[in-house]
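Usage

Read records sequentially. Each one opens with the input sequence:
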Amino acid sequence: MMLLILGLVIFLGVHSIAIVAPSFRDAARSRMGDGAWKALYGLASLVGFILLCYGFGLARQAPVVLYVPPHWLRSLALLVMLPVFPLVFAVYLPGRIKTAAQHPMLAAVKFWGFAHLLANGNLGDVLLFGGLLAWAVVDRISLKSRPTPPRNAVGRSSNDVVAVVLGLATYALFVFWAHRLLFGVSPLA
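and closes with the structure output:
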């Protein structure tokens, strides 16, 4: 469990610098240079991500049950997950979805975390999914007080169609095959 917690602290800590210490981030970035800052940020994020994935795998081997969700919540979780992949694609395909969501990646993380908390009740699940959900909520709130870069014009509406089609195809791929392959658990079980 400690590796999961350490991974979360590192991963979320790196991703929280803009929330808690934007002046530190700006000073470090200008002192180190943009490329070096991004490399260090990426490396620290990768280390945190690897630790949290490995720690989560270990936590699944010795689960501590906090709650047992009823079966119908797993079906609800499948519905809550529907917008996740389209939102992720909308980050990279600017259109009305990106404009409406404002921060589609954070929205996707919130849907993803909430859905997984509905379907899973072990301590490791609550730490991972609840931690990422809480971080996404705090980050979204903090964005309201941070200066925002000028918004680009709304992207093409065809990007929305592509984001939805690719997102739903990826969702289907995960539900019917990839989730079981990658994580050893079928969301349909």
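Summary fields computed downstream for this record:
- Residues 7 and 51 are 4 Å apart (CA to CA).
- The longest helix spans residues 34-61.
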